[in-house]
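Hello Y.,

Per our agreement to keep a running log of every chain we model this quarter, I'm adding this entry. I've kept the format consistent with earlier entries: sequence first, then predicted structure.
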Amino acid sequence: MALVEALRRVQPEIVHFICHGTEEGLILEDEFGESSLVEAEWLVHVFAVHCPSARLVLLNVCKSAALAAALVESHRPSRRPTDSPRTTILGAIAWRDRIRIDHARAFSSRFYASLAPGVSVGEAFLAAGHSLEDESGRLVRIALRNEQNSCCASSRRRRRLRHPARSARNLSTPRPSS
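Predicted structure for the entry above:
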């Protein structure tokens, strides 16, 4: 699959999906235009085995909160040696419900504009969420506890990303006050 090859070759720290989805997973097209459902278990395996550089996954995908949680939870250490390999994903941003494409674009644009100067992922998430006003309650950020959640800037921050805390939490975007 082209996705696996691209992740293996590029080794990005941030991976951004823009596609259709269901509560079961992502709907991706292959190089021939054929759509298929990619379930969370397969995606976790792909990140764990082929893209150990990934730290943040942004899912501009309807109903993708469960997938985001699965990606982040897969980072936790295994208690059994026979368990699947773990990902290096420390955080994911997703949508609880359906989204409009213009809202997804607006969020992404504001998120990356905020992230570029080196602010934390959490601060960029809040800034982008506030820009959506009525839709921000549908956003969810899933991150490992006690993390700075910065995927950019200094190598000191990158080292910190490789040693996360062990538990996850959901952080909803607060609605802007009127």
